[in-house]
Predict the structure.
Amino acid sequence: MTAKVVTVFNQKGGCGKTTLTMSLAGAMGLRGFKVLLVDMDPQGTAVRWAAGATDENPFPASVMSLSPMEGKMHKEVRNHMDAYDVILIDCPPSMNSAAPSSAMLISDLALIPVVPSPADVWAAQSAKKLTEAAQATNETLQAFVVANMVQSRTSLANDLLAVLDDDKEIPLLKNMLATRTAFREAQILGTTVHSVPRAQAAIDEVEAMTDNILQLLMLPARKKKGVPA
């Protein structure tokens, strides 16, 4: 089977892009999928995250950096598509990077993480335009905005989520990730929130989003290893 490819990008920094990508990659890996995460950020946050894992509890997905390849990275990713079930591409937060356009040439799904704040909602417009341009070339590319780092109890967040939900060209994914310390702890431990104590709320969010993403990719949901069906 040729891998399904997911691009996660937003030219604005601070939107939790790597947290979202690593969470999905790890959750899919725990379900038995063979997953590759391609780190396109020169800072190498995803690579460093995975490198923090112990030998006894390795990160459940392969992580590699292709950041020097920029706009040619899609050619290298194609070389790995027969070896994996899912490939997720974590793009850098840069308006000048060619990585998102390159990645979306070969992607089945694009995810644009957005923090529900006025500045982030405004900044997401450029990411949406880039996605629409990519869809003109890759006509099968699906795209969604993902509400990330959500302060779910605030009225401002709810109002801005309603604004994001009004966009019918690139709709808002029904699942979201809240602001939780469990995600930062997972990064320190080099693992997913599934290995973080007292992180059930974060685990539930990640698992629900993973179910939805797998459905969009037309892949079987599978249950996490060790969890009864």
About this structure: The chain has one domain: 4-216.
